[in-house]
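Revision sheet: structure tokens.
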Amino acid sequence: MSQFTTLGIVETILGKLPWTLLLSAIAFVGGAVVAGLLTTVAILGGRIANASVSIVISTVQSTPLLMLMFLCFFGLPLFQMEISPLLAASCALIAFTAAYLTEAWRAALRAVHVGQWEAALSSGMRHDQVLLAIILPQAVRIAIPPTVGFLVQVVKATALASIVGFMEITRVGTVLNNITFRPFFVFAIIGALYMALNLPISLAARRLERRFNFNR
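Predicted:
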């Protein structure tokens, strides 16, 4: 069949690339929004709120992403919710992304020397003023490189969405392999696409790290 020639295989895989990009964008943006909320609660909500956020983060980080996808795909319908493979994969990846970004952002805030808090508070500034005007700008500079770098992990993690039937490039590659019996060629193309997506992100993260003197 003409669509399964070498060119047909490449075109079929490339046709599913936008879905991988869409899922990556949903996971990263959604995870960043949730991480921002959790970080705010942890910083401004007191010890109990901070401890609660830590428990949530530890729970998600301790659960394999594959299990999160299964729980979303098979668990949400128990609550009379219709769920598509895209929605299930998005929910799992958002939780995965939010947990790791929250931890990175809290670490960035803690990296700012406590003396700056004390000096600003002693000058009469309110807690929220210190956070927004002094601490947050420094924490953002620290957090940007690992945040950008984590996007690589998000893009690679979208491959697991194939397990719940979402037709991204890994899923379509599996289908093509079962039809054409050309596993090396099929998955070499998929690997090259992931490399093409992730290499620029990795280089950008390293450049930002050097720019912000993160290593120092």
